[in-house]
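Friendly challenge for the regulars: who can give me the C-alpha cells for this chain first? No prize, just bragging rights.
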Amino acid sequence: MAANIATPEFLSELQSLYPAPAKYVDGDWFLAASIAFSSSNCPEGIPYILLSDTSDEDRRLLVRKIRDGIFKSGLISGYLKPPPEELRDTEPLRSYDSDPSRSKEEIAAAGQAYFNSTYGDTAAKVQPMLRSIYPDLEHFTVKLGYGYVYAFMGVTSAKETSFAMISALIPNDTPRQVEWHLTGAVRNGATVEEVKGVREIALKIAIKAGVPLKNVVPDI
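First reply, four minutes later:
Bragging rights claimed.
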C-alpha cells in the first residue's frame, strides 16, 4: 500500500507543506515524512523519498538523518517494521565502545537537560508524574530514552529530534503528547511554521495510510 501512497504527486504535496530551505538537506520534510511512513506501518514509502535529485554527499546525509530519526522515533512507535535496505548500516553511533569519552553520568545529565529543554516549565510536573506511575518509567524515560537516544545530537539536531517525536506520535493517536512536543519543538529551535509543516505532513500520511485516528490532532 505504501508504494501507492508515496506517489511523486503526494511527496511533492508533502514537501510543499514545509518551509523551503536554501539547501534541500536542511528541509526536514523528508525526516518527518520518513518517520510518519514508518510509524503508520508503511516503511516501503521511505525509499521513494530518497529518489530526490541530490548529490551523493547530500543523499548520504539524508540517509543518516532518516536512519537516526527512525531510531529515535522507535521508542514511540516500535522497531518491528523492517527498515528499507537503504537505511541499513554496520557502524554503531551510541555504544560506549564507539564513544568511550561519554560516561553514563554524562549521558544521564544530557538526557535531563534535553528533557528540561523539551518540556520547559511543564518538566517539573511531567517528570514527577512519570515517577508516580512507576519509578522505572521515569528512570528509563529521562536517563535512557532522553539520555542515550534523544540527547545524542551527532546526526539529528535538537529540533529534528522533536520533529521525529511529533511524526511518530501523530500516527499513534496520542494528542496530549503531541501537544507537549509541538511546543517542545519550538523550545528546541524550530519556528512555528516549521512545526505546523511537520504536523501536517505526519497527519496527511497517517490519514492516507488508513491509520484510525480517534482524537483531534492538536495544533500550535
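The mean pLDDT is 90. The radius of gyration is 17 Å. Your move, everyone else.
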